[in-house]
Amino acid sequence: MSVQEQLSDVLSRIRDSETYHRREPGSVSLVAVSKTFNAEAIRPAIGAGQRIFGENRVQEAQGKWPELKTETPDLELHLIGPLQSNKAADAVALFDVIETIDREKIARAVAAEIARQGKPVRLFVQVNTGLEPQKAGIAPDDTVAFVKLCREDIVIPVEGLMCIPPADENPGPHFALLAKLAERCEVEKLSMGMSGDFETAVQFGATSVRVGSAIFGAR
């Protein structure tokens, strides 16, 4: 299938899942994950009406998205990979949403750049629900206090939580945990679910799902 057909299929599955799980129609947005794909591979999805995209690396995104954003100004770009503090300036300049705030140093670096550049950027805190040592994200037990620190001390607008469950585990309990933490943190957005489990994420309250290979094909 073409990118356009695969995109249409994913969107249909999201809408069907919303209906099945009695979610409000249109309450789940699709972040099309375009990491490793070049501008030519991405343009068909833009042409089909997709406007929200996700990238893992700041440097890779800088090579393709300034031109794409000039061509289509209403695009929304999410950083969904780990952020280093020395890339905070570039990330704030390019991305509309940063989903991977996971420690105080990064939160303060991003806050300083938002203030310096005068650019509003929406922020999510990444939670390491599986406590995997190789994976970024704050521990579940530290999440409520960290969101409070971000909002009250660092004064940045945390609007949601994000997670990537362990690949070899049932994602449902991880999504349920993130939803419970979001309620305790009083945040409204939940970024969870990827190509293999986004329908489960819709069931547990995702407000956005991050889908790449099911749209663009294998990397």
Short description, anyone?
This protein has 219 residues and is α/β, with parallel strands linked by helices. The chain is 46% helix and 17% strand. It is built from ten helices and eight strands.
List key phrases describing it.
219 residues; alpha/beta; 8 strands
Report what the structure shows.
- Helices cover 46% and strands 17% of the residues.
- It has helices at 3-20, 39-47, 58-62, 65-71, 88-94, 104-117, 140-154, 171-185, 198-203, 213-216, and strands at residues 29-33, 52-55, 76-79, 97-101, 122-127, 158-163, 189-191, 208-211.
- The protein has 10 helices and 8 strands.
- An 8-stranded parallel beta sheet has the order 7-6-5-4-3-2-1-8.
- The relative contact order is 0.15.
- β6 (158-163), α8 and β7 (189-191) form a beta-alpha-beta unit.
- The chain has 219 residues and is α/β, with parallel strands linked by helices.
- It is globular and about 50 Å long.
Percentage of residues in strands: 15-25%
Number of strands: 8
Main sheet characteristics: 8 strands, parallel
- Along the chain, the helix and strand elements come as HEHEHHEHEHEHEHEHEH
* Silhouette: globular
State the end-to-end distance: 16 Å
Low-pLDDT runs: none
Total number of helices: 10
Structural Rg: 17 Å
Mean pLDDT: 96
Structural class: alpha/beta
Assembly form of the protein: single chain
The strands making up the biggest β-sheet line up spatially as: 7-6-5-4-3-2-1-8
Q: Helical percent range?
A: 40-55%
List the helices and strands and how they pair.
Layout: H1 3-20, E1 29-33, H2 39-47, E2 52-55, H3 58-62, H4 65-71, E3 76-79, H5 88-94, E4 97-101, H6 104-117, E5 122-127, H7 140-154, E6 158-163, H8 171-185, E7 189-191, H9 198-203, E8 208-211, H10 213-216
Helix pairs in contact: 5-6, 6-7, 7-8
